[in-house]
Amino acid sequence: MRALDAKLLRDLRRLWAQALAIAVVLASGVMVLVVAHGAQRSLVETRAAYYERNRFPDVFASATRAPETLLAEIAALAGVAQVEGRIAARVILDMPDMLEPAMAQVVSLPASGTPVLNLPVVRSGRLPDPLRPEEVAVNEGFARAHGLVPGAEFRAILNGQVRSLTVTGLLLAPEFIYVIGPDTMMPDDRRFGVIWMGAAAAAAVFDLDGAFNDLALRLVAGADPAPVVAALDRLLAPFGGTGAYGRDRHIGYVFLASELEQLEAMAAILPPVFFVVAAFLVNMVLGRLIALERQQIGLMKAVGYGTGAIAGHYLKLATGIGILGVALGWAAGAVLGQGMTALYARFFNFPWLIFTPGVAAFALSGVVGVATAVVGALRGVRGAVRLAPAVAMSPPAPPAFRRGLLDRIGAAVGLRQTTMMILRSITRWPGRAAVTLFGVAASVSMLVASLFSFDAMDAMVEEVFVLGNRQQITLALAQSRPRAAVEEALALPGVLAVEGAWGAPVRIARGTRSRLIAIEARPETGSFVRVLDVAGRPVALPPAGVVLTEGIAAELDVGPGELIEVAFLVPPRETHALPVTGIIRQSLGQQIYMAEDALFALLRIAPQVNRLNLLVDPAALPTLHAQVKVTPALGGISIWGELRAQFDATLEENLTMMLLIYVTLGGLITLGVVYNAARIQLAERSHELASLRVLGFSRGEVGFVLVGEMMLLATAAIPLGWLIGIGFASMVVAGFSTEMVTIPLVILPHTYATAALVAFLAALAAALMVRRRLDSTDIAMALKARE
Amino acid sequence: MGAGGVVFRAERVTKVYDTGAVKVQALRGVDLALREGEFVVLLGASGSGKSTLLNILGGLDRPTGGRVFFRDRDLTRASDAELTRYRRDHVGFVFQFYNLVPSLTARENVALVTEIARAPMPPEEALERVGLAHRLDHFPAELSGGEQQRVAIARAIAKRPEVLLCDEPTGALDRTTGVQVLEALVAVNRDLGAATVIITHNQATQRIAHRVILIADGRVLRETLNETRVPPSEVDW
Predict the structure, then answer these.
(1) Are B56 and B9 in contact (CB under 8 A)?
(2) 3 state DSSP class of A1
C-alpha cells in the first residue's frame, strides 16, 4: 500500500466518530431519496400496469336511467375505443357482525360474465353466475374485515327489500384501488364495501331493465377527453345525466395521484437539507484536518508530491465519508422502502405491489451523496493546494482576536471570562459557528415541518367534527323527497332533532375554467351542519348567491361579488349566473353551498331534501340502527362518532411512523452537527482547556466553555429553525394539499416547543459526549509544548 | 533565608509511568521541604524528573509512592475535586509556553483567575507588578513572548498564591526578555512572599535563588544554599 493511502486509512480510523456522524446525516438524505423515488416508481409502475391490463376507463358518467340503445351512439363518438354501460347503486347492508348498518356500492357484471372495462381480479372463489340472482362477489378488503369467504351469506336492503346474498368470490378492480364511502374521509373496509352482481339480477332489483345508469369509456390512445365529456353530457341530459368526467375526477385516481405528489414533494424538500448540512460538515472537519496537517502538507510538497496528489489525498478522504454515507443510506432506504410499500399495499388495494426502487434511485442518490462530500471538501482542499511549501512548514499564526461591540457589551454586563471565551470563539470563527447554527436550525425546521401535521390534523378534526358537523348521524335518501321527510324522520326511534339538506351535481364555470362539483342547499342558519369562514368561525349562509371554498374560488379565479355560471345537472337542468357571496374554509372535500330558500326559489321547485342530519338519543341507537336497516327510502348512513374514530385511528397508524422517522432524522442532524463542532473545538482548544484545569477550574467549569458554546449556538438556532420551519410547513401544505384535502397551516405552540426540545436535547447529548472526552484528557499536558 | 514555616513536604516520593510495554521510573524517592517565602531553583537535565516533581507538588499528578503534604494537607490522599480546589486557592502556575487563552486580553486572562479565587488582587494591580500596566487590553497575539510570559506571571500571582510553580519560564525567551521575566518573579517573591519554585536547565539562573536543588535520575542529587543572591540582570545567560 502506498504511504499516502496508509495515512488515509489511519486518518479515517482516527476520525471515525466524526466521519460516522457526517455519514449519518448524508445517509438520511440518501435514504429519503431512495425511499421516495422507490415508492414513487413502485406506485407509478404498478398503477400503469394494473390500469392497462385491467382496462381502467378514461371517462366516467352517471345518469338516472339511460336506454342501452344509447351505447351504440356513444361508441360512435370520435376518440371512443370501448364503452360499457352498467348498473351502479348505493345500498345498505345488514352485516351479521355489526349492530349498525354497513353500506356498499353495487355494480353490475354483464350477462356475458366478464366486463369489458374495469376487469376484476379474482382473488379467491369465482365471479357470480349471471343466472343466479342471489350470487355476488365482494371486494377483498370488505370480505377480510367481515371474515367473508366464498359460500358465506349476508343481507342487503335492495330497493327496499331485504335480500340474502351469497358470496362467490373476492375481487379487486382498478376502479377500486381506493375504496371510500360517501361522506367519509378515510377508507373503512368494515363499513363500506363493493358488491358485484349479475346484470339481470341488478336490473330486476333496481328496476333498470334494458337500461343503465353508470357508464365507463376507454378512449383511443392520445384522444382528448374534453370533447367526449361534452358530448356525453349532451347525450345523457335527457336521461338524468349527472355530468361526465375524466380520470382527474375519479376518486381512486386522484388519491393515488395525490400520494405520488406527496412523495415527489418529500423527495424535493428533504434530501437537499441533509446534503447541504453534510457538505458543510465535511467542509468543517476537513478544514480542521488540513489546518492541523499544514506541516505534513509542506513536507509532502517539499519532497516532491504534486498538488494533484495532495488534493487527491484529501478528496479521497471526503469520498470515503461519502461512500460510507451512501452505503448506510442505501441500506436504510431498502429497509424503509419495504416498510413504506407494505403501508401502501394496506392502504391501496393493488393485486400486487413490489418495492422496486430501480437502479436510477440508487445511482442518483449515490452520485449526489458522494458529490456532496466532495463539494464540501473542495474549499479545504483548495487551501491545502495553495499553501507554499515554506509557509506550510511553519506553524500557523496564532488566531488574532479583536475587540468589538460584543466586548464592550460583555464588559458592561460584567460577563465572566469563561463566557467571554465562548463569545469570542464564536465571533472569531463565524463560519464554523454559522454551520452549527444553521445545522441545528435545519433540524428544528424539519421537526416543526413534520410535527405540525398533528396540529393540522387536529385543526381538521376540530373543523369537521366539532365546528362543521354537529349532527350524530347523517342519513342519505335514495331519492329526493319533499321537505315533509324531515318531520317524518322525527318519528324514527330515538331521533331528537332533524335538519334536512339537499345536494345535487352541478357544473360550475367562469370563463374557460369549469368543473364538476356538488352544490348543497341548507337552511341559512343550520345549527348542526355549519360552514366556517376563512378564519374558522361558523357563519350563516348568505340569503342569496353561492358560497365557494377557498380552493374552488382559487381554481376558478373568482372573488366575492363576481358571477359564476352554475349548470344544474338535475331537473329542471337550468344554467344560472349566480353571484359569489361568500368564501369559506373547508379542509376536507369540495362543495359549493347555497341557502335552500334561495335555491328552490331560483329553480322554481318545491323544497326537497336528500340528506337528513340527526341528533339522537344514544340509548336508542340499537333500535334506530335496526330500523335504518329495513327502511327502503335510505341509501346510506354516516355515523359521525365512528367516522371520527376511524379518522383518528388511520392517522395514528400512518402519522406515527412517519413522525418517528422525521423526529429521528431531525435529531440526527443536530447530533451530527454539534458532535463535529464540539470535537473540533476540543481538538483545537484542548491545550487551552487543560490550562484552565491547571489554573484551578473544575471539570464542570471547563466543560462549560465547550458545552456552553454549543448550547448557546443551539439555542440561538431554535428561533431561526422555527422561522425556516414555518417556510417548510407552508411548502408541505402546498405540496401535500390536494383537491380533496386542504391541509391547514396551523402550528401550535407545543409543536415549536417540542421541536426546540428535541434539538436542544440532541445538541446537549452530542456536547456531553464530547465533554466526556475532555474529562479524560491529561491536564499535565498543558505544561508541555503544543501540538 | 527560609525562616518561615514549611509549605511543602515531600517524603520518599516515587513516580512510575506505566505505558503498558515499558515502565518508566521518573522519581525514585524524593525528600524535599519548601518554606514560606523561599525562592528555589530546581535544576536538572531533560528527563531528570523535575517536571514530574513539580506536577506532583502542583496537584496535577499523583505520586506512585510516598507522601506529599501542603501544610497539613496530604495531597496524595486528596480527591480530584480537592486537588482542583487546592490549585484554585493556593497554587500559581507559570508555564514555558505561557498557556494564555488567546481569545482573552491580558487583563481578562488575569481576571479568568481572579474571578474564581478567594481573595485576589485586581487584575490591573497584578499586571502592574509585572510591568504591563500599559498593555491591559492587548490580546496574546499582540504581545511579545516576554510580555506574554509576564501576563502569565500576573495571572499566577493575582490570586495571592502561597506557592508559585514555574516550569522553564524563560525556556522560550531570549536573554533580555528572559531577564525581565526573572526580575518579575524575584519581585513577586519578595513583595508577596509566595514560596517560588523555578524549573530550569540553565545553570546560570541558579544564582538568583535562595536554594538550588539538583535533580538527576529521579533523585535529589544535591542541595545548595546561596550565600548571596545575584539579581537576574547580572546573570550570565
Answers:
(1) no
(2) coil
A558 has a pLDDT exceeding 70 = yes
pLDDT band of residue A198 (cuts 50, 70, 90) is very high
Tell me the mean pLDDT in the region A176-180.
90
DSSP track, A486-553: HHHHTTSTTEEEEEEEEEEEEEEEETTEEEEEEEEEE-TT-SSB-EEETTS-EEPPPSSSEEEEHHHH
Q: What is the identity of the amino acid at B140?
A: P
A601-to-A420, A481, A577, A595, A596 alpha-carbon distances in Å: 78, 17, 14, 10, 8
Q: In chain A, what residues touch B61 (CB-CB under 8 Å)?
A: 780
Reported ipTM: the value is 0.79
Nearest to A417 among B89, B112, B167 (CB): B112
Q: Kindly state the helix (H) or strand (E) to which residue A46 belongs, with its residue range.
A: helix A16-53
A203 to each of A87, A108, A111, A624, B78, how far by Cα in Å?
7, 8, 11, 30, 99
Establish, for the pair of chains A and B, how many residue pairs have beta carbons separated by less than 8 Å: 94
Q: Are A729 and A448 in contact (CB under 8 A)?
A: yes
Q: Which residue has the cell 501540538?
A: A787
Please give, rounded to a whole number of angstroms, the shortest distance from the CA of B101 to a CA of chain A: 6
| Extents of the domains making up chain B | 36-64+80-234
By C-alpha distance, the chain A residue nearest B118 is A696
Pairing relationship of beta strands B91-94 and B163-167 according to DSSP bridges? parallel
pLDDT tens digit string along A674-719?
Answer: 998 898 888 888 888 888 888 888 888 888 888 999 999 999 999 9
* Burial class for A155, CB neighbours closer than 10 Å (0-12, 13-18, 19+): middle
- Residue A396: what pLDDT? 64
CATH no. of B36-64+80-234: 3.40.50.300
pLDDT digits (tens, 9 = 90+) for A3-12: 778 888 888 8
Q: What is the pLDDT of residue A288?
A: 81
**Rounded Cα–Cα distance for residues A691 and A694 (Å):** 5
C-alpha cell at A204: 330486476
Query: CA-to-CA distance for A445 and B19, rounded, in angstroms?
Result: 49
Q: Pairing mode, if any, of strands A592-595 and A513-522?
A: parallel
Nine-digit cell string for B215: 535533580
Decide if A692 contacts A704 (C-beta within 8 A): no
Q: pTM for the full model? A: 0.80
Cβ neighbors of A510 (< 8 A, separation 6 or more) are: A556, A557, A558, A562, A563, A564, A565
pLDDT digits (tens, 9 = 90+) for A241-291: 999 999 988 988 988 888 888 888 888 888 888 899 899 889 888 888 887
A183 within 8 A of A474, measured Cβ to Cβ = yes
How many other CB atoms are there within 10 angstroms of residue A649's CB atom? 12
Instruction: Please work out, in degrees rounded to the nearest 5, the angle formed at the alpha carbon of residue A277 by the alpha carbons of A271 and A279.
Output: 100
Binary contact (A701, B116; C-beta < 8 A): yes
pLDDT of amino acid A775: 78
Identify the closest residue of chain B to A424 by CA–CA distance: B103
Report d(CA A141, CA A160) in Å as an integer.
Answer: 26
Q: What is the distance in angstroms between the Cα of A290 and the nearest Cα belonging to chain B?
A: 21
Chain A positions touching B95 (Cβ under 8 A) are 691, 694, 782-783
The yes-or-no verdict on residue A725 having pLDDT over 50 is yes
Which residues make Cβ contacts (< 8 Å) with residue A663, sequence separation at least 6? A447, A450, A451, A758
